Amino acid sequence: MTSFIQLTDTHIVSEGSLAYGRSDTATALARAVDTINSRLPVLDPVDCVVVTGDLTDHGSAEEYAHLRQLLAPLNVPLRAIPGNHDTREAMRAAFATEDWTPASGPIQWHHDFGPFAMVGLDTLVEGAPYGMLCEAGLGFLAHCLKTTPDQPVVVATHHPWIPSGMKDMDRNNLRNGPAMLDLLREHNAPVHVISGHLHRAMSALVDGILHQVAPAPCHAVHLDQRADAVNSLVLEPGQVTVYNWREDTGGLVSDLLPIGDYPGPWPFYD
Ligand SMILES: [Fe+2]
Ligand SMILES: [Fe+2]
Questions:
Q1: Which of 92, 109, 155, 258 has its CA 20 to 30 A from that of 146?
Q2: Mean pLDDT in the chain?
Q3: Could you say which ligand is closest to the alpha carbon of residue 131?
């Protein structure tokens, strides 16, 4: 059984600072890494951690260096795609030694897990809060799908194509989501889309394709669906998401793992 863990929206700032003056993202990430490491021995083999964007808050080299330092203790390989808070070239430089990092163009990759493949896509529009897949990104996705037409595929994007009801977030989602869906709909095998950006655990069937958004290890976006809502952060408990491929059903089963230590486990019956 193959597993992977999604970590998203780590929003690392310079050492000693808080994101938005309130969110201690460095401590949250350090605790997330501890939580992942402590769970590895009791999970089915974890192939990698996938970081789905907004790795840093401002995309500076200093923030990426801080991020790499915080991720260093992670006992499993990682791969990443950028979000709107990242800058492509600083991220590329920070991960230049990783075999998944392309030398130029969108930071996108294909990874074969065996029973399924993952296509990581770059939706960053430099300087904009919303996301778009560029022609090269759509072409890369089409190529990956065509190469393995019968293999289930997980598509990872930072920006989701999911109606959250949080107005400011929905204004800044994946603006050409329908172009991605046009390609995914044609795939012969099951497709599952995973994203970040909303800082909440949300899922929806869009055109029959499961879209799933993962929560962050640090702050959440306040779930306020009123028309006059002020987009706000809230310090809800941080989480990472474990995805486990089940041979019996031929699909991924996800589990939200709260970050931190909790009393137990105790056998139900001694
Ligand atoms: Fe974010
Ligand atoms: Fe974002």
A1: 92
A2: 97
A3: 2
